[in-house]
Amino acid sequence: LRTDMAAHRPLPADSELVQAIAVLARAQQDAVWARGQAHNKLRSQLREFYPAILNAFAQHKQGLCSREARSILAAAPTPTMAAKLTRRRLQSLLKQAGRVRGIQAEAERLHEVFKRDYLHQLPQVEAALGHQTSALLRQLNTACDNADQLAEAVTQAFEEHPDGPVIRSFPGLAALTGARVLAEIGDDRARFASAESLKAYAGSAPVTRASGKSCKVMSRKVKNQRLAAVGYVWAFNSLTRSPGARAHYDRRRAAGDRHVAAQRNLFNRFMGMLFHCLQNSHTYDEAVAFPLASAGLRATAA
């Protein structure tokens, strides 16, 4: 640094609130990843001896991470114990998990699933697997609680930042994903000289390698991995919330891009819009962001 200081960028002058949001958002994302690992370990364990619980919550949105599944699994860590659960006991467990509607019907369904015939391990082996399942369940409970508490904290901090309304105006960004974006780009307006530099930092801008007559366009590997991860979530969620984003994605797919490449291209466009909106304190406008799609919708309505 003493000999080539001009080649290095100064540290961003982010506000104290953004630095706090960055700590909370990264911790929450780590907790989500830990929750996913704990869920996968528990699911792999249950596949060996407890298929009934997997069948019972196969269609549930959160799967084994749901409070209902964790509550029942804590009360019956083995299939033999699950088969002994009465309808009244299942209703009680569902109420303890926070369910308020369809309790009786759900208890009937679970009772029927647990009463089916399944292959069983030897009794002592099943008991040992039940103890291991309880240990893995405690890890999952801790990971779920950590993710939920950190999500509440980061959402509250994000709502206090003045850039929050601008970021949340974009389709596909909610409080949690918006906080992750803000945590990685900061609120120092002089940090990125142009939209292209922000796109390169996010990893959405491609890299062109040219030598002689050969020219290759590849995805960028050196990037902010956390910002790139939330970028794919952002692009995917926007497909159902923005007609312009959906039309842009469909055009990229028709041009030959794979799903991930089309998402990355859409994320790249969103990053350019976000840079402009933050620099000028403007909220997202669908008609300005995707004028061709907006004009087509107006013509169809007419």
Task: Describe the fold and architecture.
The chain is mostly helical. The protein is built from 15 helices and two strands. It has a two-stranded antiparallel ribbon. The longest helix is centred in the middle third of the chain and has 37 residues, at 123-159. The chain is elongated and about 70 Å long. Helix 12 crosses helix 15. It starts with 15 loop residues before the first helix and ends with a helix. The model has no long low-confidence stretch (mean pLDDT 92). It has two domains: 16-159; 164-301, no CATH class. Strand 1 and strand 2 (214-218) form a beta hairpin.
Features:
two-stranded antiparallel ribbon; mainly alpha; 302 residues; 2 domains
Order of helices and strands: HHHHHHHHHHEEHHHHH
Gyration radius (Cα, Å) is 25 Å
- Count of discrete structural domains: 2
Q: How would you characterize the largest beta sheet?
A: 2 strands, antiparallel
**Number of separate helices:** 15
Given as residue ranges, the uncertain stretches (5+ residues, pLDDT < 50) are none
Please report the total strand number as a whole number.
2
Global structural class: mainly alpha
The CA-CA distance between the termini, in Å, is: 63 Å
Strands of the widest sheet, in order across it, are: 1-2
Helix content: 55-70%
| Beta-strand proportion | under 5%
